[in-house]
């Protein structure tokens, strides 16, 4: 699959993850959770902006930023489940967790494949 298509699919996955975080913030009461509430809103905003940019361009820095977003969000979730994060303890299982986790993992894999094509297969270092 071409890099451009991989980036667009990753963009959709990132926006989907952001939509889950926004729904949790708007509907499920996360806006009132100290520290985590604002972080969920920031996550959603970042996802929408990054997703839009990735959909329009397949620039290497955007691909790296998208992979970083997905990896950081997954890492924060794992930390929140097993150790707590800013006084918040997340639950491992649930619809929102499954949807967001799957979307973030998909984005990470898609962007990894796009970056692999860009660097390993072509040997190109275009920015």
What does this structure look like?
The protein is mainly α and 127 residues long. The chain has one domain (3-121). The chain has 4 helices and no strands. The longest helix has 27 residues, at 95-121. 30% of the residues are buried.
List its traits.
127 residues, mainly alpha, 4 helices
Short description:
With 127 residues, the chain is mainly alpha-helical. The chain has helices spanning 3-26, 36-56, 60-82, 95-121. α1 (3-26) runs parallel beside α3 and α2 (36-56) runs antiparallel to α3 (60-82).
State Rg. 15 Å
Share of residues in helices = over 70%
Q: Mind summarizing the main beta sheet?
A: none
Low-confidence stretches: none
User: What general form does the structure show?
Assistant: elongated
Show the helix and strand layout.
Blueprint: H1 3-26, H2 36-56, H3 60-82, H4 95-121
Helix pairs in contact: 1-2, 1-3, 1-4, 2-3, 3-4
């Amino acid at each position: 699959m071409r890099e451009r298509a991989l980036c667009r699919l990753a963009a959709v996955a990132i926006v989907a993850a952001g939509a889950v975080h926004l729904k949790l913030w708007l509907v499920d009461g996360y806006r009132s959770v100290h520290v985590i509430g604002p972080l969920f809103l920031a996550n959603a905003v970042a996802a929408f902006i990054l997703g839009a940019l990735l959909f329009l361009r397949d620039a290497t820095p955007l691909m790296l930023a998208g992979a970083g977003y997905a990896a950081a969000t997954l890492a924060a979730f794992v930390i929140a489940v097993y150790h707590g994060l800013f006084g918040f303890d997340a639950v491992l299982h649930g619809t929102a967790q499954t949807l967001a986790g799957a979307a973030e993992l998909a984005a990470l894999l898609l962007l990894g494949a796009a970056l692999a094509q860009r660097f390993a297969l072509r040997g190109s270092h275009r920015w």
